[in-house]
Amino acid sequence: MQLYDTENKPMAALEVLSIVLRHLKDKILRVVCLQRTNIADDDVQYVITVPAIWSDAAKQMMREAATHTKVRYYFASILV
Predict the structure, then answer these.
(1) Dihedrals phi, psi of 51, to nearest 5 degrees
(2) Per residue in 38-63, is it b (16+ CB within 10 Å) or e — as a string?
(3) Which of 18, 23, 53, 59 is the most exposed place for a label (fewest CB within 10 A)?
(4) pTM to 2 decimal places
(5) Which residues of the chain have pLDDT under 50?
(6) Distance between CA 67 and CA 30 in Å, rounded?
(7) Which pairing describes strands 46-49 and 73-76: parallel, antiparallel, or unpaired?
(8) How many alpha carbons fall within 13 Å on the CB side of residue 20?
């Protein structure tokens, strides 16, 4: 799947998701390190939730993006 920027340049959706997750991870670590010293990347676990209405393919893409960015994550599912 391709996404397009404002100049109509294509970029893989998986790459975009990976960049966003990496940015969020880095931001979270910076904020946590301001409040607490001696925290390592492996000390933090992330919970990534996705809407139940997302397709299995979309959920899988999010998992792949998290794995690609080396985010230690757990997916939460809400069953109705």
Answers:
(1) -60, 140
(2) eeeeeeeeeebeeeeeeeeeebebbe
(3) 53
(4) 0.74
(5) 77-80
(6) 21
(7) parallel
(8) 10
